[in-house]
Structure formats: structure tokens, C-alpha cells
Give the backbone structure.
Amino acid sequence: MDNTRTQDTFSQLSQEKILKIMNMVKNKEVSIEGALHLAQKEVFAAKDSQDLLTGSQFNFIIYKYKHYRWQKRILQIDFNTETIFNIEKGIIKKQFPFSQVKACEDTERRRFSIVFHGRQDYELEAVSLDDKRKIIYLLSRVIQSNSHKRPAESYSERPAECDVIHEGLLDLQQNTFTSTEWVKYLVQLREGELTLYCIGLGRHNKNADPTSTVNLLRGDVSVSKENGCSTFSVQTKEHNYLFRIPFTVQNNRTEDVSKLQNEWVSLIERYCPPCKGASPPQEGSQGCTSSESDYEDLIVPLGEQKEEALHFSVSSATTSLNKSSSPQTKLAEVDTAPASPSLPLPMSKAEVPPAPPALLKPCGLSHPTKRTKAFHWDVVPYDKIQKSLWGSCDPCKKKIDVSRLCDQFQIQDMAVFSGNESSVNQHIMLDQKVAHNFNIFLKSFRVKPSELKEKLYIIHEESGGLTDEQLTALRRYMPTPKDTERYLSFKGSPSDLHVVDQFMLEMCKIPHLGQRLDLLLTIRELPVSMRDLEPLINQKIQASKQLQSSQKFVAVLEYILAIGNYLNEKAGKEKAKGFRLSSLTKLPLLRGKERTFTLLHALVEQIFLHEPDLVKFSQELTEFEAVPDASMKGLSAEVDVLRKELENVTQCRRLIKHKTIKATPQESQFCKELKDLIQKYEGDLSQLSKRCDEMKKLYSNILVKFGEPQDLDSQELFGWISSFISEFRKACGEVLT
């Protein structure tokens, strides 16, 4: 362990927190490495809280799943307007008041979901675990404010972190393909949420982020004791978290463990709303014992079930066709069921998942070494078979040339290397669902595992680097800390592994892989984004200048004020000193005695009668000819995000350069080219930021000039003016005819 790092970490903690962690080590609740991990978690949490207190508007790059692909967006959480904005290329696509936010679901890897009242959920993916943690932290404050039925206060006035009601070390059950294991977590209960910090993944995850946040206010969370005195489970709609009270020096008696179990269950129940439609757990469906030896026994049967489960998954296709099964098959059918490592399950349900369907042996072929294309025909419904010709049809009587069919329709392997493809009994170390999707991607990925690292030192695609789509896909299949620990502990030959495992093993060996992938994507996207934003910002600047200097538009507003005051005075209302520009859209809505004659037509008649030159006022506002799309709020968020992205690229370059003191020529060339690009983009972004500041200053002056609130977005203001110009021209034509 690095003594300097240890001293630096503990020196940033209070004496109370240091004493608490030292007592955990003394009581053998955590190892020394786990204690350092806890200390780092406390330091990071304190630092993040302080950073989040410095502002009330937060911008994050996220990816939103839409039309079968992930689209890049900006998620803005604005505590000034108490609104969440979805921004794409400076355009505010959606906005949600804080009051509509119901819950925030922490899902696998970098993904999370925002649950709203009365509308579809938002499934999103953050660019990093750090961003995901910050987003969930901010949203939890919004949800908490909603639960108290009071408006969300300015975030700068909110406490940095909710008080921890209860905390302690618990073991959380997690399932792998071959076994069930208990991983140690620091669990903190706050009002409205349960936060899980993993501290038991070993040396490869020293800076682990919170792995999960369970929102307790969503209405579908329940907690229950299991059959033993030391376990309890927290169930949500998507997950079932099974916790165990660990045996320690202090908790070495069944009575002590049972007391802690009751304490956790009662506290969590207190902060959970009643679960609607929840059915009581069936007796005996989830088993757990209180003795420590029984905990370990669960791993053994799973290892014994592995071969049986694989045998069953291969043979079940044949037995199901005959509608018969042997006692051994029935036994396997009961004992095996799909399980995901990311979803903790009760102990008695810790099953081994069957082999993926893609790896099964076809029923009618004796040599299933070659796969063929599928014929996607339309199948006759079963109830119509008997009365049709198919009822008496026997396909087995027809002889077919199998070799000819295989020769014509076999699937060609697109990979350029000869790795171990799927075999019936070959075990894949990666999670079943992830492995299936990753394997699909690898079919079109013409790169050998050994070439992957070299490709990451090529910045541009035209120079032989990976495509943006490939970088995005690799980023999505980044190995988790548990994956890294599992693969780096592999001692065999990589050539013996499935192609999926070969790539994952290589990815685990590449230092700072996530930062490298993000760096390449960002360094390519930065010039494109700046090039797209520049004309939009310039258009807003020009529009603000035109609006500031237009005398004819002001004269038109004076006519509207005079007409409106006359009508209101005759209606018994007070005269106004001025009106908001949103009133421009109401002129066509006030109809006269003739249904086709509106207040806008009356304005046009008055202008034609007294100052006909004002009819052409729109010639001074040419930038308002079209309805504006991008908003200044959105454009400012885009520039802010670009600034953060460039800072991340600079930090990543320093990180990589530090590790490549004895660099190869390729690595040196990469760092040099990267440095030149960063310097160029810093200059370009500096100029863009100055233009953005100019845009905001001019618009602020516009708001003052017309008496509008400072938080009014340009998309609304400019939209009103653009709509008014269009309706005014239409009314002019109608008055003249």
C-alpha cells in the first residue's frame, strides 16, 4: 500500500471519521485495504458535495435511447427555474418541472432512468460513473424536496448531504455464472434513499463509486426478513437486494445479529411508503440460515450444477420435441433458471443460467460445426395444421443434399482472426446478456484482440483508427471492476478462451481504457461541435443587435400600447405603462364585430393611416424571419459542456503521459499529436466562449430594455417576435385586399 497516499487520504478526514474507520479495522469488520477505500469514499463525497454547492445549474452529457440508437444530449438540472432540460445542439427538446420527477433508477454500468409522473420514463446513459453519481445525487435532492411537498429551494441554500439516519457494513449477495458470493458494502440509509458503497471488490477497484442507490419513495419498495435471523431483502420492481449481517468481533452471537436485522428492517420500513399491490412472500421461497458455515455451503452446489445445467440446456431442445423428459431432466429444470450477476437474488434462488440459445446444438444436424442463414418464413398456426395439407406432410421422407445447403447458406465469419468461436460446452466468463450483445458486435469488428491497444493510439479514423461507432460500442461494453478482477486472475492461455473473453481480457489489460475511449471520441467531436455552435451563436448575437437598435419595432409597440390602453379604459380597467412581449401572440385572438377582423387588423389599419412606413418594420429584424430553434440557454449549456470535455481531455493526456515515460515511438507520436490538437482546440474554444459571453450580455440588455424577467429564455422571446412578424404580414395582406 502507498503510505503517502494513505496519509494524504486520512489527513483530509475529521477525527470522528478516522476513529470510526479505525474501530472497524479493530473489530475486523473491514481489512486495512477496505479501510483505505472507505476513507477515500468519504473524501470524494465531501469534495463532490462542496463542488455541487458552488452553483445552481448543472450540465451533463448523457445519451438517450431513441429510434434504436443512443443519441447524445445535454441534461441540465436547473435549481433556479426548478426545471430539468433535455438539450440537443442548443435546442431545448423537452423540459420537466421538478414536481414531475417521481424517482431515479440506478441501473447497470453507466445507465440510469428518470421516472416521471404521468409520462414515459427516461432511460439515459452517463459518460462516466462519476457523472452518473452526481446526477443521481442531484435528482435525489429533487425527489426528496417533492416528498415533503414543498418547492425545491435554490440548491446553494440546501445542505450538502442529507443526514445519514443509519449506516453499517452489510454483505450483499451477488451471483456469477458459477457461484454465489457475498460482497461487503457500506450501506447508508438517508431519508428517502438507501445508498450502497462497494468496498469488497479487491485491489482492482480501489476508487469504486457507489454501486447503487435505491429510492425508497417510489411506492413499490418493500423490505422483509428472510428465514434466518441474519438476512433481509429489499425488493424493488427491477431488483431484489439480499443483505446479510456479517459476523464480526462485536456481532458474534445470534442474538446480536438478530437485533441488527430487526433494526435495519424497521428503519427501512419507516422510510418506505406502503407498497401498492405487494403480495406477501411465500413461505419457504427464500431460504437463509443463521450459521456462518451455511453461507459458504451455497457456493458448492452451484459448482456441481454447472455441468448439469449445460447438459440440460443442450438436451432440452430434443426432449421437448418428443414431449417427454427423464427424471434427471426434470430435476435440472427445477434447479436451473436464468440469473444475472447484476441482480442480487435470494439464496435459495441462486441458480445457474442455462447456456445462451445461440450456443445450442441444432436438432437435425449430426455435424453442427457450421452455422447457416435462417429462413424467416411465416409459420401456419398450430390450430390450422390438422385441416390443411401440412397435417399429413412428413418432411422426413424427403431426402435433401445437406452438404449443398451448407455450402450455399453457411454464415461466413467476418472476423479476421481465428479465435475460439462458440462451442456447446465452452464457458464464457462474462455476464450472459452482455456477452451475447458483445458477441454480435464482434462479428463485424475486424480487429484482433492483440491489435486493440495499438488502434487506441491512432486519433483519426482516416489514419487507420477505429470508427466512432466502434469506439462508442467498446465504451458501452467496458469491463466492470468485477470483470477486471475475474479476467486478470485468469492464468490459462488466452487462445483457449471464447472470442468474447479474449477481447474482454485484452480490454482489462489496457490501462485507463475508459479514459482513452472517451478521449478519442471527445477529440473527434470537439471540432464538429464548435463548428456547429459558432453560426448559431452568431445568429443570436445578430438578432439581439437588431432588436436593440430597431426604432420602428419600438414605434409599433407604442401603437399597440395606445390601442390596448384605449380599449381597457373603455372597459373600466386601468391604463398600463407597458406590456410583456408575450402579449404580441394575443393580438390575433381578440376578434371584433366581424369574426375575420382582429385586434391585429386594427393595429395594421392604424399604422397604414398614420405612419405607413412602420409597415416595413420587419426589414430591421431580418434574423427573426424564421422561428428560432436554438436557445441561448441551450447554447450556453453546450459551450459549458465543451469546456468540461476539453478539461477532461487535458487531464487524460497527463494521465497517459505519466504512464508512458518509456514510451514507444507510436505512443510518443500520439501524445505529441494530442498536445497539438488540445492547444488548437483551446484557442478555438476560447474564441467561442467570448462570443457566447457577448451573446448573453446582449440578450441581458434586451431583457432589461423590454422589461422582461432575466430568466426568460430567448427561445420564447424570439419566438413571440417571429410569430408576430409572420402574423403582421398576413394581416397587412388581408387589410389591403
